[in-house]
Amino acid sequence: MKITKTSQSRIKDVDFNNLVFGTQFSDHMLVAEYSDGAWSEPEIKPYGPFSFTPAMHTLHYGQAIFEGQKAYYMENGEIGIFRPEANAKRLNHSARRMFMPEFPEDLFMEGIKALVDIDREWVPKAPNHSLYLRPFMFGSSEFVAARPSEKYIFCIITSPVGPYYAGDVKVKIEETYTRSAAGGVGSTKCAGNYGGAFYATDQARKEGYTQVIWTDHKNHELVEESGTMNVAFIIDDTFITPPLSDRILGGITRDSILTLLRDRGFVKVEERPIKVEEVVAAAKEGRLQEAFGMGTAAVISPISTIGFRGTDFSISTPEDGYAMRIKKELTELRSGLAEDPYGWMVKF
Ligand code: COI
Description:
The structure is a single chain. By secondary structure, this protein is of the alpha+beta class. Helix content is 24%, strand content 29%. The protein folds into 2 domains: 2-163, 2-Layer Sandwich (D-amino Acid Aminotransferase, Chain A, domain 1), CATH 3.30.470; 169-334, D-amino Acid Aminotransferase, Chain A, domain 2, CATH 3.20.10. The chain has helices at residues 57-61, 84-97, 105-118, 191-195, 198-206, 252-264, 276-284, 322-335; strands spanning 2-3, 28-35, 38-39, 43-46, 64-66, 69-73, 79-82, 130-139, 152-161, 169-173, 211-215, 223-226, 229-235, 238-241, 268-271, 288-295, 299-308, 311-314, 345-347. Strand 13 and strand 14 form a beta hairpin. The chain is globular and about 60 Å long. The site of 2-OXO-4-methylpentanoic acid (COI) has 7 residues, from loops. Residues 68, 194, 228-229, 295-297 line the site of 2-OXO-4-methylpentanoic acid.
């Protein structure tokens, strides 16, 4: 791999005590280019702008996908990346569905480790801080004919981040707009899934909510996701989350939480379709103990209010509840304070 180091690090300009999510970027980035059916050797070089033609394919047709993952500073001074193989696989799941070339998993693993290693000083050391890693790929051919791009760029940039203070999360059960539909691209991390969600989210914001709970495209009867995260409810001491489908993103945090909960057995786990009416009935009857989003950025984001057809239901967010216990277990595993029986941390 070709490596060109920056002559002037920008790390001194960063206030690691006041990091705003995803706004500052480390010194280096990794870039590989695809043309004539093959990927170039990835190159690590100083972080900086790309130049592009106005006819660049992705600006017109949106063949663009990304990943979100984190590297942690561990108790023993090592750096650990959480489940990078899972991200490499999910990137290629997105690539296949978006008709883009897969990026070889071994190059992904080698590249991400080399990049984090070069910028290891950028991995924040404070608790609940991490280096957010953003691999992405987009069509870079120069033509506006509506056919797949022939050239692509794969890139990884990294950003030091602190705790994701979502504050009080009030969500509205969305019954007008949909995030995804059967046969669509909802299970991929394509850029348009996020761009397409902003309008509905803003409508909910105007009504005083922070986010929406997405429901199914047909009848808005089934709960699917919450904002950019997978969603779970604790009802009658049971953890319930919707099953994966072509409408729901296979969250790596979701998968890790399911694995931990099934192994530790401190709560009953159900991965099954869950109806809006079941959540609302449980809220009315005082059986909805907790609700939360699960994702890379916030890890777990407790929901304090669910709005449904003009009525707001308050949900407790106990410090010693299930959500916080799950978060603690994951945090301890990631920092090396607890064992990692699954080999999830790739350390160096
Ligand atoms: C998540 O953590 O839920 C995300 O998808 C990250 C985001 C910044 C899009």
